[in-house]
Amino acid sequence: MARIGYARCSAQDQSLDIQVERLKSEGCQPIRSEKVSGASRDGRTELAAVLDFIRKGDELVVVRADRLGRDTRDVLNIVHELDQRGAFLTVLDPHISTRGESGRIVLTVLGMVSQMERRFVLERQREGIQAAKAKGVYKGGTRRLDREKVLTMKADGHGTAAIAKALGCSRMQVYRIIGSEAQAPSV
What we know:
Elements: E1 3-9, H1 17-25, E2 31-35, H2 45-53, E3 59-62, H3 65-68, H4 72-85, E4 88-91, E5 96-97, H5 101-135, H6 147-155, H7 160-167, H8 171-183
Parallel strand pairs: 1-2, 1-3, 3-4
Antiparallel strand pairs: 4-5
Helix pairs in contact: 4-5, 6-8, 7-8
């Protein structure tokens, strides 16, 4: 029986250190982590690796339920996949385990709250953007990656993982840039 830790944050400039340290202190080994949105399971390669690796009797441990996902259906699907493999989920804050039915109920409620919280954040963001546009001060988001650098490295024969590592971003970001360039109309 293994205790497998999973840590996630949404932004590249956020730190996973506190989550990873907490998982280590709980005896988790291995610990997989990634910096990617929890809005869906798309692009969450480390979570996918954990779900492929986990075996009967193993335990997936996360610090908070929202680190597992921000979509109730995704979280419940993950719990279902763990059930299918004979594994279970433990959330540290607040302590919840899917070993018992009451833990499943609490996890469902927390997943719904997390999803609602995400909708509120997005709504406030949209309202802020609309207000800034009305004042004429909105210029759009700033690009965090040098798109030309990504495309140049790709053209030079570098693989997606190598580009992501060199630029300090996720492979999914590299895939998006390469994919958007491939779909751009030629002039």
